[in-house]
Design brief:
Blueprint: H1 16-36, E1 40-46, E2 53-59, H2 66-81, H3 84-101, H4 104-111, H5 118-131, H6 138-153, H7 158-171, H8 181-194, H9 209-235, H10 255-290, H11 309-314, H12 319-343, H13 349-355, H14 357-360, H15 363-383, H16 385-399, H17 404-421, H18 425-442, H19 447-462, H20 471-480, H21 491-519, E3 522-524, E4 527-528
Antiparallel strand pairs: 1-2, 3-4
Helix pairs in contact: 1-15, 2-15, 3-6, 3-12, 5-6, 5-7, 5-9, 6-7, 7-9, 7-20, 8-18, 8-19, 9-21, 10-12, 15-20, 16-17, 16-18, 17-18, 17-19, 18-19, 19-21
Length: 531
């Protein structure tokens, strides 16, 4: 009939904070159902004293009963304050706000980065993010806010900078230019599992050195192509809100006066950059001196209770690892202040403090998001659902009966699935190592190669699981730069941004591993994929 108008239902968009609250409520209900169904699993761990297998029965815990509610209410503040990305993010923003408010970052972009080819800049960000797993999660909390700002200052979509940094850190997790915290955390379990087959087995810290270097470069190159050729065109141009202060005005001024002002400004910027460079070099030399042992007043950032240098540098109690984010924040802060003094963009302490306000204004939304995410991930961990699923995946790996290349590919898939529910590599490896390493060794595949397979599976799905702690940083910053507050960037939307990266990089991981295995290239010094 004519005259009738079609009614369109207005789409409603839940903010990620609301979604995580709903997910937490649904998780409580699910835990009660699965606990009533007696969902459980058995997995083996290796005793550190006897080096023998110990069976562990894990069951789903009901969080909808009295004890569960008691845990939620009594641990809410602890879960929030102990949430790893929180402190690191605040420190990073402190340094970044000063470096930005003094004009250092804008001048750096205008004089140096804007002259850099956009593909090269994207590659640098992805490459640094990829190798950042050398020191836990610093790639997320440091690079995501910095990359967003750098892209914005270079007149590019800040979403692209956020996606590039997040994707590099997630889908390249575990590869680097040198061995780091991952080796220190994983090798004890790998060695114990290998000694179930060979009592004399020894896994060196450099057993994966060659392969992680090559993979870090290749994955960064492929990632750059994905970002620039696929994701960038889809995102389009970023449009900032028009501000009254940005309205065009006709200014009549003497040409010589304008030229003189430009020359004076450039002189100030050059002085500022010179002061910033001297400060940066001084601090970097000082930081390096702090991680060199056995020199006068050196080794301040090393854990001297460890026997090996890598343990001193990347161990669980390493001062360098725990203090790295603070050092980066301090570097940004002092370099920014040095620039401001040199360029005369700051005159006193009030200029510095007032300049930080703009960067910290959107932090409230991110803090709210981090709070609800910390509760969701904590409750999920307490239910044991993830551990049960990871145990099933590990059991399937040991019982499938595959050998050689089929076993390798199947193991990657099982670890990738388990990683969606247990994103922490060391937690997964404690479950997988006693099953997977012996199965590999009995199939003539080396234990170090099995350990590298854990990196591959973890990396493949790290960027698409909302249970990843730093996913909150990613989705939080997407919403910080979102101009349409009535249409927030949802969890679904944020994952859809990285789906092309996920698909192509997953295939890249698997093809590279197959090629490495078939050719028989060394994993590290004197270490190969086969025994």
């Amino acid at each position: 009939m004519q005259g009738k108008r079609k009614l369109k239902l207005k789409k409603f968009y839940f903010h990620p904070i609301t979604v995580y609250i709903i997910l937490t409520i649904l998780l409580l209900i699910l835990s009660a159902i699965l606990s009533g169904l007696q969902m459980q699993a058995t997995y083996n761990t290796i005793s550190p004293t006897t080096n023998e297998l110990e069976s562990n029965l894990i069951t789903v815990e009901n969080m909808l009963n009295f004890d569960g509610m008691k845990y939620i209410f009594s641990n809410a503040m602890t879960n929030f304050l102990s949430f790893a990305p929180l402190g690191m993010l605040l420190l990073t923003l402190f340094g970044l706000s000063i470096a930005n408010s003094t004009g250092f970052l804008e001048t750096l972009c205008k004089r140096i980065l804007i002259k850099t080819n956009k593909n090269i800049l994207t590659f640098i960000i992805i490459f640094i993010a990829t190798i950042s797993s050398l020191i836990n999660d610093v790639g997320y909390v440091i690079l995501i806010p910095i990359s967003a700002l750098l892209f914005l200052l270079n007149n590019r979509n800040p979403y692209l900078g956020i996606i590039a940094a997040f994707s590099g850190a997630s889908f390249g997790y575990g590869v680097s230019l040198f061995v780091g915290s991952m080796e220190v955390n994983l090798i004890p379990d790998t060695t114990s599992a290998a000694r179930l087959i060979d009592a004399s087995a020894h896994i060196s810290l450099t057993s994966n050195l060659f392969i992680i270097i090559v993979f870090s470069i290749i994955l960064s190159i492929v990632g750059t192509i994905i970002i620039e050729k696929i994701i960038a065109p889809r995102l389009g141009k970023y449009k900032e809100k028009e501000e009254l202060s940005k309205t065009e005005e006709l200014i009549i001024a003497d040409a010589k006066e304008l030229e003189q002002q430009k020359i004076e400004k450039e002189k100030k910027e050059k002085r500022g950059l010179k002061a910033a460079l001297i400060t940066a070099i001084t601090l970097i030399v000082l930081f390096i001196y702090m991680i060199i042992p056995n020199l006068p007043y050196s080794g301040m950032l090393l854990d001297m209770n460890e026997d090996t240098y890598l343990g001193q540098l990347f161990g669980t109690s390493s001062y360098f690892q725990d203090g790295f984010t603070y050092m980066m924040a301090l570097l940004l802060t002092l370099v920014g202040i040095a620039y401001g003094i040199g360029a005369k963009s700051i005159k006193n302490d009030k200029d510095i403090i007032n300049g930080c306000k703009e960067t910290f204004m959107p932090i409230g939304e991110i803090l709210m998001l981090i709070f609800v995410v910390s509760q969701f991930t904590s409750v999920f961990k307490q239910t044991n659902i993830g551990t049960v699923i990871a145990s099933w995946c590990a059991s399937a790996t040991g019982n499938i009966g595959f050998t050689g290349l089929p076993l390798v590919i199947f193991s990657i898939i099982m670890i990738a699935i388990a990683n969606i529910f247990v994103p922490t590599a060391s937690s997964k490896w404690e479950i997988f190592a006693p099953v997977m390493v012996p199965a590999f060794m009995q199939s003539n595949i080396s234990a170090p190669f099995a350990q590298f397979i854990l990196r591959a599976g973890t990396s493949i799905t790290a960027g698409i699981t909302p249970l990843l702690a730093c996913f909150a940083i990613y989705i939080g910053y997407l919403n910080v730069y979102n101009q349409n507050k009535t249409k927030p960037i949802t969890i679904h939307k944020s994952i859809s941004y990285v789906l092309p990266y996920f698909g192509i990089i997953s295939i890249t991981w698997i093809l590279l591993i197959i090629g490495w295995y078939l050719i028989g290239l060394p994993l590290g010094p004197g270490v190969f994929s086969t025994i």
